[in-house]
Fold this sequence. Notes:
This protein is an alpha/beta fold and about 300 residues long. The chain has one domain: Rossmann fold, CATH 3.40.50.720. The chain contains ten helices and eleven strands. The strands form four sheets. A five-stranded parallel beta sheet has the order 1-2-3-4-9, sandwiched between helices. It has a two-stranded parallel ribbon with strand order 5-8. A two-stranded parallel ribbon has the order 6-11. Strand 3, helix 5 and strand 4 form a beta-alpha-beta unit. Helix 1 packs across helix 7, helix 4 packs parallel to helix 5 and helix 6 packs across helix 8. The radius of gyration is 19 Å and the shape is globular. The two termini are about 35 Å apart. The relative contact order is 0.14.
Amino acid sequence: MVTGGAGFLGRHIVEELVVRGVRREDISVPRSDTDDLRLIENCERAVKGVDAVIHTAGITGNTEFHKNHPAQIFYDNMVMGVELMEAARKAGVNKFVTIGSATEYPDNAPLPFREESLWSGSFESIHAPYTIAKKMLLVMAQAYRKQYGFNAVHLLLTNMYGPGDKLDGMVIPMLIKKVYDAKQKGEKSIEVWGTGRPTRDFIFVKDAAAGVVSVLEKYDGAEPVNIGSGWEISIRELAELIVRIMDFKGELRFDTSRPDGQPRRMLDTSRAEREFGFRAVTDFETGLRATIKSFGFEL
């Protein structure tokens, strides 16, 4: 079962499973309009007869969304994960993979972020409700493993981009849309939120999906695992690259009244490579071009 299997990451995981030989009819994808996984009875029904769960469903968005919806983000993510894992444990599911986030790392964690640094300090306040909800699924997974012998694995995914994302989603599709709109309207500049100084580790969604499925196949450890590119780029450099690829001649203007979020974010991916042979393979500019084309924008 892939929760969120119709979403951005989830649909690529489904496709990756099919590529690796799983029959599509053997993959269950609960839908939010009929299977509210915040309710234990729905979780219990969903996991009946299921061998493994990949839990990608969640409530998230850009920094502005996190700023304006902290209670919804905390409640929905926390309750959904807790109820689903408990239902899976009681139903005898063989493996449960939770999708966490690189935002679980403290602001002051040394770069690149290593899994051993996960509890080394506090984290950025705007994303705290999401971060804590996700981090508690790691605590739950390790507790269930210790008491029940339940095979639950927690992944720490970095920022994803690629085909299937929403134009009003995270930073990359937002910047692509701004550049496209500015070109269509003949505008001379685009506005970028924040100072442009923060850095991020971006992973192409198809690479992320391959990493998750590799975990399902090969990793049964108690410790969390980073899934990222192991490479960082500043928001300013990212915006300049998108502008170049899309041939926009205007100016970048940075709105410093908007929050930057975590100052830097880059994952150490050596555990993933060592434990199950995963390494992101998509060149960043190649991935960006594929992403832009997937929105129907000509280059």
